[in-house]
Amino acid sequence: MDKIIISQYKKVKILQRSLKWFASATTLVMLFVLIGGALVTKTGSGMGCGRSWPLCNGQWVPDNITPELVIELSHRLVSGLAGIMVLILSIWAWRAVGHMRETKCLAVVSFVFLVLQALIGAAAVVWGQSDFVLALHFGISLISFAAVLLLTLLIFEIDKKFSAASLNLGRPMRFHIYGIIIYSYIVVYTGALVRHTNASLACPSWPLCAKSRPLPMQFHEWVQMGHRLAAAVIIVWIAVAAVHAIRHYREQPVIYCGWIIALLLALAQMATGALVVFTGLNLYIALAHAFFISCLFGVLSYLLLLALRTRRKPEKAAGHPVRETAPATLK
Fold it and tell me: What residues are labeled active site?
């Protein structure tokens, strides 16, 4: 009997380890989808396969191979692989950790939003879309990526080495988390709009639009400066939240470190945004810009998940969390 129990325990551990590896791989592939989408936009490869989807120029194996075709086709293949992996992960996680209340919701969101972004991309190829609609594409992909990331983090909680229920978040911290995650999506949209309207270099100077005239004068300059202003606001807001975490949440490392990482990513995002202008839209820096915002949104999404999972507890008048005392031992 003991051998049977030990054998079953080993099988469970192997399945858990396999699920963790697969979830990590799926998260990495979803990150490639985001970076690949940014690469397609920044290199103008959206029409690399012509007005044909899912085929490329109406062919399974294209005759005329161009760099734009390779980039667009590669992005489609990676997106297709991601769709299969996300579907498998969603079903697997649903069965393995479905007892966690967030699992089913994240599984559905990750797959549905990935399909939605694929449909928007296909519609843009076949029928064309306005820049304002295309700007939604990256944001929808970002939601799918964040859902897969959170699902992966939930899977890593199988061992119960960390419990969000042990956290104690005050009202100011909850306000920062809820407000910044919502506002960050607006920043993401404005950044995507900059790319899709080809306004990345509309303002030749930084942080002002031009040395001779600080205010924008035409549409593309307004799009560029609107994004810079939105990005500046979120950096200041994240800095305020990070200072609040440093002052009041040192005993809760996941919150404390989460905001420190978020601030570093926001600063890296700002630095790469400035370098995009100074280097004349260097491709690698532009892709790094997309990478940092993806990671930042992932961190903010995890903080949101923690805020939604923690218990609401009494707070001091100043809004700071109250330290809990250990429960009395039953005798």
Answer: 72
